[in-house]
Amino acid sequence: MQTDASISSILIVVLFGVGTDYILFLMFRFRERLRAGDEPKQAMVTAVSRVGEAITSAAAVVIIAFLSMALSLFGFFRSMGPSLAIAVAVTLLAGLTLVPAVVSLLGAKVFWPSKSWRAEPKGARFAAIGRGLGRKPAIFAAVSGVVMAALAAGLVNFNPTYDLASGSMPHTAESQVGLRQLERGLPPGTTSPTNVYLHSDSGALDVPALPSFGERLRAVPGVGQVGQPQVSADGATANFAVTLTDDPSSDAAIDTVSGPLRTAAHDGAPPGALVGGETAVYVDIQDTMNRDYRVVFPVAAVLIMLVLALLLRNVVSPWYVMASVGLGFAATLGATTLLFQNAIGETGLIFMIPLIIYMFVVALGTDYNILMMARLREEAKNGHSPREAAALAVRHTGPTIAAAGVILAGSLGALMLAGNALLAEMGFALSFGILVAAFVMAMFFVPSLTALIGRAAWWPGHGDRAKPEPEPERVRQG
Question: Within a 10 A sphere around the Cβ of 193, how many other Cβ atoms?
């Protein structure tokens, strides 16, 4: 497989993101066990036993999501996916071996110079949120669901754009200034003509018939000019330079090339015709991305649900957890559309944004849902009712998820400072999506639904029930 030069920089973001999350998950539980009186090594053993499964499952979800990108026909994503999956696997290995070993040796010194770890934090805000959620889970589920649905409504205006150059370069750049001046006096398509190629495998083309073919192309709506055919030395190939009346990267130009121009070229060519050029590339990218959405998303969703079912040992909760993830994805893409298209006035979002949101927000955001569900199950096993378990899970796990979400969103949001549209859209979408995953999905939506569904959420595995203590063996007499 071929690699892409940009993968190295993306690897850094992913490693910092998942690495920070996994270490925070572990350290919060380690600190909790130290306060309970455990020795450092025993505290780490307990922390790994309690959180290790959740971390492993969370990593498995991210690895599966990234590996599913290998099914993409788009080379950039096909090479990026396995690379990021390897990075997450290495991070998981370090998080379950190297980090626990080092922290066990350091013990409480790892928190130096602070001594505040000795006192259990009051966590008044999270405790209050947990109590409110436990008392009225329906309100929390409804409000969080409505917020995500309202943001998802922005998808109505979503429009992918393929103009990477104008969004990536400042308007004062010489190339952009020259481009705008050129478009004032000539058709926009002059900057990048579309090419229609004729080729004959059985000898020379019928050169006298080429002008009539050019007239057929000139009659297509959206075509401004058609140049004289350039014929190869052997007479078997001819090229028509077609100037479109719209910008080569615009939706109108893409519709012209994908529809009437290709139809006219294919139907009117005596031997055979191929349509190429910048706009034709965008058409093919559009078709490729649509195919990837139909294949990659469903495959990844099914595999992620299997991981959730194995972790949670039931078939009910994975459905609404995945539904919340899908709603969070739609809310993130909708909010990005509302900001950049409706508020700022961009013509569209970079075409890669939906798949990038999927890779990072859905995959990494599911980590928080898994951590919350694991704590919900643990509290339920301790004998608490579904609503009590939800309240305690938010109280104890809320600070961990909040800290991890803020750190990860902050690191990804730094991309907005890069100064071009592509990275600005990526930075906002990724940071906003992580915040939605942490503070809406994992903090409110998933625990409130679990409290509403009750013990049926764990059917049929009943993973919320504590295992009965084994009866002591009777000593045989005589």
Answer: 22
* Angle (nearest 5°) at CA 420 between 366 and 150: 45
Q: Which residues contact 68 (CB under 8 A, 6 or more apart)?
A: 81, 296, 299, 300, 303
What is the Cα–Cα distance from 352 to 357, expressed in whole angstroms? 9
Cα distance between residue 279 and residue 281, in whole Å: 5
pLDDT in tens, 389-432: 999 999 988 888 888 888 888 878 877 876 667 778 888 998 99
pTM for this predicted structure: 0.79
Two structure tokens written together for 178: 């020259």
Q: How far apart are CA 419 and CA 163, in angstroms?
A: 16
| Residue 116 pLDDT exceeds 80 | no
Q: 44 is written with which tokens?
A: 């780490």
Sign of CA dihedral 85, 87, 88, 93: positive
What is the CB-side half-sphere exposure of residue 61 using CA atoms within 13 A? 32
**Is the pLDDT score of 285 beyond 90?**
no
- What's the DSSP call for residue 240? E
What single DSSP character describes residue 382? T
Return the number of other C-beta atoms located less than 10 Å from residue 355's C-beta.
20
Strands 160-161 and 349-350: parallel
Q: How far apart are CA 238 and CA 271, in angstroms?
A: 11
For 350-401, what is each residue's pLDDT tens digit? 888 888 888 777 777 788 888 898 889 888 888 889 999 999 999 988 888 8
Distance from the Cα of residue 416 to its chain's centroid = 17
**Which string of b and e fits 169-188 if b means at least 16 CB within 10 Å?**
beeeeeeeeebeeeeeeebb
pLDDT tens-place string over residues 173-197: 666 666 666 666 666 777 788 999 9
Residue 467 has pLDDT above 70, yes or no: no
Residues 369 and 390: their CA atoms lie apart, in Å, by 13
Q: Rounded CA gap, 140 and 48, in Å?
A: 31
Three-class secondary structure of residue 38 per DSSP:
coil
Phi/psi for 104 (5° steps) reads -65, -40
CA atoms within 13 A on the CB side of 27: 22
